[in-house]
Amino acid sequence: MPELPETETIARDLDRAIAGRRVVAVRVIKPDVLREVSARAFPSRVAGATIDRVWRRAKLVVLDLSTGDRIVVQPRFTGALLIDAGQLPDEERKYSTIQWSLDDGRLLHYRDIRRLGTVSLMSPTRFAEYTSGLGIEPLDPAFTGAHLSEILRASRQAIKKVLMDQRALAGVGNIYANEALWRAGIDPSRAADRVTTAEASALRESIVDVLTESIAHRGTSFRDYRDASGGRGGFVEHLAVYGRAGEACPRCGTRLIGTHAIDGRATVLCARCQK
């Protein structure tokens, strides 16, 4: 599932490429991806609007329209927003669920192979309500070591679960929780309230660093994630632990352990480095 670096990459690409463009027509191909609006109402409310801005909140890509409405895309596992200037492969077009025609002749597709992602249309008030339960953004300057320590002290759950709880911290998922905990030397199964203030500060730095580095490499692609041009993310080559169970720890050489025991998701750790 695309996490913060992947959705940030998509949002930045789209903002550069289509902000200021007017939507001249909308085609709903697979209405089951729509939320908050009907397949009949969606084209009439969006056609004619200008895309003012594209940005990210948590794992959502948000398109602000000149009408005041917001298109809110949650890609989940196989969703992608792809710009089509006539060169998009047919394999990608085949799974297009919604198609926006822009005033410069290009198309924007929401492609979703398994159709587990969603496309919503919301007013700013509804969007504020929808996102009110999300936690702080980890790249926000307000996200400090002290703030993270406060979040962790409030929970006895495994720290990895807390980092992935979108109500506590927005945008961090399984890949980057694994990576940040390895960098900080913290066992993913340790109870969150047992993390010291100093460890929380170190973990905060690890979270920010790994997210920032991944954005610089345009995210992580294992299977389905694509940026707005259909390209793959390059951070997979820089992962220290995720997807590398059984290999040597890059820090100490101990064999990395893979488990699903913590939260049902793949967790990879070094039993020597992470305490």
Provide structural commentary.
- The protein has 275 residues and is of the alpha+beta class.
- The protein folds into two domains: 4-130, N-terminal domain of MutM-like DNA repair proteins; 145-269, Helicase, Ruva Protein, domain 3 (Orthogonal Bundle).
- 28% of the residues lie in helices and 20% in strands.
- The protein is built from eight helices and eleven strands.
- The longest helix is centred in the C-terminal third of the chain and has 20 residues, at 197-216.
List the helices and strands and how they pair.
Elements lengths: L3 H15 L4 E6 L5 E2 L5 H6 L4 E7 L2 E6 L4 E5 L4 E6 L5 H4 L2 E7 L4 E6 L5 E5 L1 H7 L14 H9 L5 H6 L9 H11 L12 H20 L40 E3 L7 E3 L6
Parallel strand pairs: 2-9
Antiparallel strand pairs: 1-7, 3-4, 4-5, 5-9, 6-8, 7-8, 10-11
